[in-house]
Specification:
single chain; Rossmann fold; two-stranded antiparallel sheet; 14 helices; disordered N terminus; binds nicotinamide-adenine-dinucleotide; transmembrane helix; UXS-like; golgi apparatus; decarboxylase
Length: 451
Amino acid sequence: MKLYKQSSNNTHRRDDDVINIHSGSGGSPYHSKTLKHARSLPRSINYIFREQRLLFILVGILIGSTFFILQPTLSRIAPNEASRFTTSVSNSNSNNHNQRTARTLGSQTGRVPVGIGRRRLRIVVTGGAGFVGSHLVDKLIDRGDEVIVIDNFFTGRKNNVVHHFGNPRFELIRHDVVEPILLEVDQIYHLACPASPVHYKYNPVKTIISLLISDFIHDCDIYKTNVMGTLNMLGLAKRVGARFLLTSTSEVYGDPLEHPQKETYWGNVNPIGERSCYDEGKRTAETLAMDYHRGADVEVRIARIFNTYGPRMCLDDGRVVSNFVAQAIRKLPMTVYGDGKQTRSFQYVSDLVNGLVALMEGEHVGPFNLGNPGEFSMLELAEVVKEVIDSSATIEFRPNTADDPHMRKPDISKAKELLNWEPKISLREGLPHMVSDFQNRILNEDEGKQA
Ligand SMILES: NC(=O)c1ccc[n+]([C@@H]2O[C@H](COP(=O)([O-])OP(=O)(O)OC[C@H]3O[C@@H](n4cnc5c(N)ncnc54)[C@H](O)[C@@H]3O)[C@@H](O)[C@H]2O)c1
């Protein structure tokens, strides 16, 4: 075995030096082809690294952009990817980590870079089998998210969400929110609450409890609570780092002394009246949400919803639009309480759902008024219902109920400016959609009675 070293005259080209090792005695120490190849390879690599740096950077950018464009598609293919980021809620030691990672996921919804798709979220909708909740569920499922509905069916119906049964991105849990529940989620829309006077007056204590707390203890650094309703959901939001949206109500303004109502108005609520379980319950729910926001860093959103109507409303729930429509279809006189001059504003449900989603995805806590500023007296509403359903429909006057507000009209300038939201559908456009749904259900009801 001989060792040969190719000497070089050019001392600066030491990298060109080649050591050839040959076995056997007869082989030539000089092998021109091997040498040429061995010399040229590092030289060209060197050249590329030195001279083509720009080309390398461009190729890198190209590969990076391709990855980011494909990434959202991949994340949809792997639906449980999000759960890799949110660890088990039962592991209390990892709560802070959960909170941070899940919050990052949640906050991505509002800040999606141009050209990059949105990560699929897992979202809880309490009261999702109800009127508003079921329309919200439709929207969230349509845009590709996973939705878990929690409902005890007090006023909600399985029929409202039956079209999602069998969809792997939809789950329905029969559960009362006054009991705690543990779920790994990115966002919580908290709607569960008996919302119509007929229902909340039926069980006022339960109504306030669904919104309220049974016991509330302040610990040195965190709130330790024995929770119910809103507090349960706020506790869940805190534990898993989910964003929490409360559906409050225009009833927090009571019988308002300011018109139209701005979010800065503190309201005029009778604390001991028949409606107080609802009004004061929602006011307290807002307080709790803000306390969790300030004290426990929960990302909170508060919507103050004004009268909303649309398909899937309860038929006989005592709310004025559903009352009038159902009565006109059944050929009964429309019941007007008082002189009928009290005013309300009516928003179509799809407008509300768009507002709720804009609020959840946005960066502002609120509260935000979500309503249609078009103002109608009860008598004007009755006229519109006559136009749409039956021009021969009649009106029956009855004594007004206690604490019925004289006027209600949202000032929505805050939502317009900060959420870029405003309602699009007028009463005359929206009402026919509700009427066809009511006609079908009343027909089915009547057929059921005859059978
Ligand atoms: N529709 C409106 O005009 C209006 C106006 C202001 C505020 N809101 C608020 O919006 C939310 C939804 O209202 P909606 O009109 O869809 O009412 P809804 O009665 O149709 O829906 C409420 C849902 O919550 C469920 N629910 C009630 N108590 C529950 C409990 N303890 N546990 C689990 N589920 C429970 C009901 O079964 C129902 O499915 C409510 O919080 C309501 O206060 C609605």
